[in-house]
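Let us practice reading a record.
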Amino acid sequence: MEKALENTKAEELNKMGLYFIEKERYNDALKYFNMVLEENAEYIDAYYNKAMVYVLLGEADKALEYYDLIISKKPIEGEAVFQKANVTFFMKKDTEEAIRLYNKAIYLGVNKENLYYNLSLCYDMTRNFNQALIWIDKVINIKGESVEAYNKKANILQKMGEFSSAIENYNKTLMIEVNNEEANHFKSLILGEMGQYQEALDLLKKTEDLIKDKTVFKYDMAIILEKQNKLQEALEEIEKCEKIKPDNFQILNKKATIYFKMRETDKAIDIYNRLIEIYPENMDVRFNKASLFMTLQKYGEALEDFDYIIENMQQNDMNKINSYYFKALALKLIGSDKSKAAYEKAIQQYSVLIISYPYDSKLYILKANALRDIGRNDEAEIMYEYALDLKPEQLEIYLMRAKNRITLGKMKEAKADIQNVLEKNSAYISVIKADEELNRCLNAN
């Protein structure tokens, strides 16, 4: 009887705490949850609720403390592990630990669509797109038709370069919600990527009224015009965006890219410098600036940015991953005796990363290019083969392998790679003609 009364009082106090959460009076809510635990230290809901308050207050460490208390009292409490994973991922930004915790929650019996969705987000962030697809498919299997899940799956497929499959999933969204902004928006961009420019523009114009932020519409127009090499028109659309959002990173970065393509490199560099002042922690702009310096053959300036990225970014950051190779290439191009060591380091880093991300074709490409540059062409051939197994639709890899095969004296195989590219996309003829080795190989008897 006494235990029942204790639970009843704890329940009443807990309800008061929940009431104060609804009113956003979080300190009062904490006071009542503390009173619950004074009444009954085993009242688990109060621990959950205190953790929730600390999440609402943005105090991740305090929230984790209470989830850990629950787990210490109930080691197989999967829900606590799941909530701890959410805090770890969304607040602490520790993706690897979040993946471990989500998998532990599944092992402990948690079967929730939002767990699988969050796990898909984690794998997406770590570029393990195959795993991301597995978990988003799990969401779709549980939930059935879901706009959010179809859009997420399409987004992952888009990153993988599987454009037709991405459009198929955006179309599934549009069958449910014909005016869905995200699906219409990204479908038009993918059509542009696929070279279906008029269809992309028609869809974009048709959905203009759906896009709440008009800068997004103008930005998308700029992207499609840029793809068509209508650079002046693209620049005009971007400048319209800039008038509305003058310091927006994405808008200014795109403007710099367009200036670069227009060969107005001084203007592009000025924008990159401005972006670095506004967003000093953003490494995309540093990498883009370094890439521009490489094109201008200013290898010393490029090296400064590549070194900065390598020193300051986490191991799985894509800019850092790319910088290992391009640093080595820059050193080679200036004739530095440090280039071989830089290439060896790049190869070592890619070998380690491939263990963690075995389905990321970019890693195999970068490793292959590094091996090729230092004369380890047979090993490079194997890496190109792996990359093509993962991304057979990525035509650039065939051209990279063709150059490697030319070095190996495999002229027949190299020519077959070049012809394969042209059969799939004749627009690559300009790229091939611009490369003396590839052009000579194509025209050889």
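A brief commentary: The mean pLDDT is 93.
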